[in-house]
Write a structure and sequence with these properties.
Layout: H1 2-25, E1 53-55, E2 61-63, H2 64-67, E3 72-77, H3 84-101, E4 107-112, H4 120-130, E5 135-137, H5 141-150, E6 155-157, E7 167-169, E8 173-177, E9 181-186, H6 192-204
Parallel strand pairs: 3-4, 4-5
Antiparallel strand pairs: 1-2, 3-8, 6-7, 8-9
Helix pairs in contact: 3-6
């Protein structure tokens, strides 16, 4: 009996360890990207992302179907941001270049959460200066708020001079695929190499 209990205990431990690994990978039955996921999404990845309507650098109204035509790395920020946004967006651009070297085509997308100052022209110049393929988007307050809500981002304008205020905001970058929608997010402490490796895993399993 002692040996039987030992065997049963070993089976239980193995099951628990396997279950813990499975949970941390974020996988599930029928998930083609289970081996690529490194984060858990409360409620599932389907709760993030979705339709949006914004303005591109030419002032044209575009939707997610016009913008997310290729795998895309999406970031919400603002062009007057003094430190965080330039660093994060430059990091994303570097990850895009690393993926280019590996033959993997990903589009960087920048969505402004400061529509009062970030006109289509301003956003377009900001995006073009950081990467030749980066798409810059802005919109009305209602359009920007709707896009932010879809991606569960946070932003709040601080009090101050009407021309030189700051905007508090979340700093996640989102991997969005044309057919699948949102599949993963990246924190700002991740390096270009780490992001490129993780994005590459998703692309290899499309």
């Amino acid at each position: 009996m002692t040996r039987l209990y030992a065997i049963l205990a070993a089976v239980v431990v193995a099951a628990l360890v396997g279950g813990a690994w499975f949970a941390t990978r974020g996988g599930g039955a029928g998930d083609d990207f289970a081996q690529c996921r490194a984060s858990q999404i409360a409620g599932g990845s389907d709760t993030i992302g979705g339709p949006f309507e914004l303005l591109n650098a030419k002032g044209e109204t575009v939707t997610e179907k016009d913008v997310i035509t290729k795998p895309s790395l999406v970031y919400f920020g603002y062009t007057f941001c003094p430190d965080v946004c330039p660093l994060d967006v430059a990091r994303n651009a570097e990850a895009i270049d690393l993926l280019d070297e590996r033959g993997q085509d990903v589009t960087p997308v920048f969505i402004s959460i400061d529509p009062d100052r970030d006109t289509p022209e301003v956003v377009g110049d900001f995006a073009a200066n950081l990467h030749e393929r980066m798409i810059g988007l802005t919109g009305s307050h209602e359009q920007v708020k709707a896009a932010s809500r879809a991606y569960k981002t946070y932003y709040k304008k601080q009090d101050g001079d009407e021309d030189y205020y700051l905007v508090d905001h979340s700093t996640f970058s989102y991997l969005v695929l044309p057919e699948q929608g949102f599949v993963e997010f990246f924190r700002r402490d991740e390096t270009p190499e780490q992001i490129a490796d993780k994005v590459g895993c998703f692309l290899e399993n499309l």
